[in-house]
């Protein structure tokens, strides 16, 4: 039986296949316009102020509460990451996609390195049981009065440090772009991560004696532009989110003498209302972090934060072989290779376009991860291959983890096709997956079809957990499966042919 | 693809058995690129290697200094690990369509 293995490369010649693996061929790679690529700062530490004693001590011990939005359903996974990387425990807003944790402000940069969070904000105040008055007028008046009573000072300090931090990045980016055509990623490089807290520390030191021109202007003029974003959920409210934002915003403007600007703002104030719970915060991220790794989008590209959550569910161990057999643009294996670089990741798809895109995304990432010309590249442990999911060219029982986004049947494929595809997928995945220790995290919106397909596979797959998620408005599920110890038996070696159901 | 990936692949032909044949490679397209050496990673990959397929691939690509099999105490043998690191992760090539076997 013939199957094709194609290379994710533009020049395809009959019989000869090249496959983009560890290092990009720079002349082939198009640098996709992408403002989400982060910038490497590490080389010019000389620009940073030497730390001085004195005015540091006050800001140094600043503790704040940070709120993070995460994919709904993965709050616990995100909390685990926070505990692992920051040592903080989290308060989880279950099924609402939010977690809260306390940090000292020096850890701020590390907070930006979290891979399970979409957006970050600093909490100004939380009201666990806000007492709403009876009429709309009274409620809105309360919001107006609230603005002047909130503890803005510390959160604004954090906001400022965060903004300076980002400003330095943009400045470096300009320097870097002139000197060097490679755009390096600040967060991706492990060697940099260690120096991150140094940067924030230096920011704290230079906070008082400003040499940086732009931030000096800011402190002096205080003419910041702002807007208020209100998210409201609950049935008993007698006001709309627009009204709350408008009136609260008006009061904020009066209090700070800031200028309101819906599109070009410096400060984004968040007013989150859920039933009788209100959280006022200041945003620390502008655009969502979730598309960070993907420079070449496909029609159904998965959020990186969701990809991270699914991978983490499988608890990857060093040198695990992790495969995404329907990788699309490669969101999952790329996230995997970045975060679990001591595992080996293989991205595969039956669509050559998808494999192309995945390879391009890998190349972009590799561009980011190279330190300098001439130095050894990190060479991410990832490869991209074209294959047929129903007949994977992988050796039996060699894959430790399978993580994939299965065709929903809405934007890709069809529901009818899923009835044949799902059982065939599960069967083939059970063959390549290592018996006993192997596991799979499979995302799908076609839950009915999946459960039915799974019901005939109890001898090889055991469902251990389900996470309910929301994908672009669709109610989907991530099924965590464990591979049973039973070895895969070839259908031809059994009595009669196994039917999918 | 890297030779490590190649080693994990096989032509899975129904009826022939779970292993199938290794993919044949063509020697025309070979690239070497430096990759940071991680001895721990390499050492743990050794048990997963299908040696026959690896040696055949190395032979086809005319690679030199390829260990013939795991040696005793390989976990601590830096020379061995570096050789394996080079072969598995730094050599890149592609398989040929024409060379895949069909069951008789």
Automatic annotation (TrEMBL), chain A:
UniProt cross-references to Gene3D superfamilies, sorted A to Z: 3.30.2130.30, Vaccinia Virus protein VP39 (3.40.50.150)
Predominant localisation class: cytoplasm
Keyword field contains Methyltransferase: yes
SUPFAM superfamilies attached to this UniProt entry: S-adenosyl-L-methionine-dependent methyltransferases, THUMP domain-like
Family label: Belongs to the methyltransferase superfamily.
UniProt-recorded name of the protein: THUMP domain containing 3
Annotated GO CC locations: cytosol; nucleolus; tRNA methyltransferase complex
A single MF term (Gene Ontology): tRNA (guanine(7)-N2)-methyltransferase activity
GO annotation terms (biological process): tRNA methylation
Localization: Cytoplasm
Keyword terms, alphabetized: Acetylation, Cytoplasm, Methyltransferase, RNA-binding, Transferase, tRNA processing
Stretches assigned to the THUMP domain: 168-284
UniProtKB/TrEMBL annotation, chain B:
BP terms from Gene Ontology: rRNA (guanine-N7)-methylation; tRNA methylation
Xref: InterPro entries: Trm112 (IPR039127)
Organism expressing this protein natively: Ailuropoda melanoleuca
Example GO molecular function: protein heterodimerization activity
Name used for this protein in its record: tRNA methyltransferase activator subunit 11-2
């Amino acid at each position: 039986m013939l199957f094709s293995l194609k290379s994710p490369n533009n020049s395809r010649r009959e019989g000869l296949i090249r496959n983009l693996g560890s290092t990009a061929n720079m002349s082939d790679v198009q640098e996709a316009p992408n403002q989400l690529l982060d910038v490497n700062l590490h080389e010019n530490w000389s620009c940073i102020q030497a730390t001085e004693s004195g005015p540091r001590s006050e800001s140094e011990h600043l503790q704040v509460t940070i709120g993070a939005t995460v994919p709904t359903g993965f709050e616990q996974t995100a909390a685990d990451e926070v505990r692992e990387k920051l040592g903080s425990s989290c308060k989880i807003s279950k099924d609402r996609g939010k977690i809260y944790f306390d940090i000292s402000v020096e850890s701020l940069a590390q907070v930006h390195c979290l891979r399970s969070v979409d957006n970050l904000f600093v909490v100004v105040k939380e009201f666990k049981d806000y007492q709403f008055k009876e009429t709309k007028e009274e409620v809105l008046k309360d919001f107006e009065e609230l603005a002047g009573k909130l503890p803005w000072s510390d959160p604004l300090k954090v906001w400022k440090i965060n903004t300076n931090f980002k400003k330095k990045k943009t400045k470096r980016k300009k320097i870097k772009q002139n000197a060097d055509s490679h755009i390096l990623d600040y967060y991706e490089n492990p060697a940099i991560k260690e120096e991150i807290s140094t940067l924030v520390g230096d920011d704290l030191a230079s906070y008082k004696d400003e040499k940086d021109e732009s931030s000096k202007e800011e402190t002096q003029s205080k003419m910041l532009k702002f807007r208020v974003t209100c998210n409201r959920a609950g049935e008993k409210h007698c006001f709309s989110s627009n009204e709350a934002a408008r009136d609260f915003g008006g009061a904020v403007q009066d209090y700070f003498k800031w200028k309101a600007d819906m599109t070009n703002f410096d400060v984004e104030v968040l007013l989150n209302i859920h039933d009788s719970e209100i959280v006022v915060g200041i945003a620390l991220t502008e655009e969502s972090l979730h598309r960070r790794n993907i420079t070449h989008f496909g029609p159904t590209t998965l959020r990186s934060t969701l990809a991270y959550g699914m991978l983490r569910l499988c608890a990857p161990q060093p040198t695990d072989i992790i495969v995404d057999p329907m990788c699309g643009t490669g969101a999952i294996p790329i996230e995997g290779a970045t975060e679990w670089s001591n595992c080996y990741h293989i991205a595969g798809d039956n669509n050559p376009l998808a494999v192309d895109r995945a390879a391009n995304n890998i190349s972009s990432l590799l561009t980011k991860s190279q330190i300098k010309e001439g130095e050894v590249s990190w060479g991410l442990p990832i490869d991209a291959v074209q294959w047929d999911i129903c007949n994977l060219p992988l050796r039996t029982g060699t894959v430790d983890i399978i993580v994939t986004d299965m065709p929903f049947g809405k934007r890709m494929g069809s529901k009818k096709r899923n009835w044949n595809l799902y059982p065939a997928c599960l069967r083939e995945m059970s063959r390549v997956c290592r018996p006993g220790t192997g596991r799979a995290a499979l995302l799908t919106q076609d839950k009915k079809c999946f459960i039915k397909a799974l019901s005939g596979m109890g001898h090889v797959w055991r469902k251990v957990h389900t996470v309910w998620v929301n994908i672009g408005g669709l109610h989907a599920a991530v099924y965590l499966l464990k591979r049973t110890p039973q070895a895969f038996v070839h259908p031809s070696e059994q009595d009669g042919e196994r039917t999918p159901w | 693809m890297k030779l490590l990936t190649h080693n994990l692949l096989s032509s899975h032909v129904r009826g022939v058995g779970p292993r199938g044949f290794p993919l044949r490679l063509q020697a025309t397209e070979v690239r070497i690129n430096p990759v940071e050496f991680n001895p721990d990673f390499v050492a743990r990959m050794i048990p997963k290697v299908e040696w026959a397929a690896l040696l055949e691939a190395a032979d086809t690509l005319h690679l030199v200094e390829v260990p013939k099999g795991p040696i005793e105490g390989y976990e601590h043998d830096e020379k061995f690990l570096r050789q394996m690191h080079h072969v598995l992760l730094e050599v890149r090539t592609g398989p040929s369509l024409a060379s895949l076997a069909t069951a008789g």
